[in-house]
Amino acid sequence: MLNIYYTRHCNTIENLIENLYLQTQSLTNEKIKDYNHLFIQNPSLSNFGIIHGLETISKYNFDKNIHPNVVCASYYVRTWQTAFILYNNYFKNNGTLYILPYIHECHSEKVDIKKEHLLYNIKESMKRFILFIKYLKKFMKNNYINLYNDFTFEIPKIVFLNKYGKEVSLEKAYNINYYKKYIYLYEPNIKKFENKILPKFLNNLSIKIDNIGIIVHGLLIQRYILKKKDILVNNCNTYLIKYKINNNSFLRKNIYTKYKSLTFYLPHFHMKISHYNNPIYKIFVKKNMKLNKKYILGLYYNKKVIKYFDYLLSYYKK
Predict the structure, then answer these.
(1) Cβ(237)–Cβ(220) under 8 Å?
(2) Per-residue model confidence as pLDDT tens digits over 85-102
């Protein structure tokens, strides 16, 4: 029996802005300008996302409970970063991160899909991933010294598969023309991933595989794994799917939620609003962290993000 653990990536800067936008809308009757995904394409994890991942490890012993033989992610760097946090013990033992096709984000009509996919190629994602690991090391040393001593911060080996399931060299993956032709995908396809890509991928591995950890996206889990469009998939929720191999294909046996982690929402920023029971706020206070916008955002943000952040926060100062 093969266990596949699908996990939604941790909170990104875009998620953080979206959450604050929705929260602000719910607290005021005024019309609020929509952020509309205009700020950061292919975003990295925010500090909230990092904390969420680290708290998940602390509370659930996530990596050691699942104990994956293989860890995979989508083409988006936020899934790589989440994998590095949640499955750090795997990478500590020289594990390879496999980047697989057909498990990327689903998109709404508002997103310029070609722009999002093509502006940030794999070379750019690799730069962000390396910078993120350096940033994570500093962040944990200052705030999570207990976990810091057990973590590895070595850049793991990364293997890319194109949309035909073939391993490609970094040189090819970095080539934007190759990327457009052999990697770029409009929408995810979980059936193709599970019935063609995954069996082929596993057959090429020389080790016995019992558990696979796969970091994906919330809408992918909602639409194609749980097949429910009306549920909220929170950060780090993990869904265990069991398969049996039959005629070189996977047959889904059952699905259930396991290792369901903490659900974090943005704290309110106005002191008059009761935010003291918010778990993220408690962690900030516990760790003596400064609750300021730059610290909340983390590694990647730009002037538009700060400007919009201030715009939303202005509603709490009225």
Answers:
(1) no
(2) 999 999 999 999 999 999
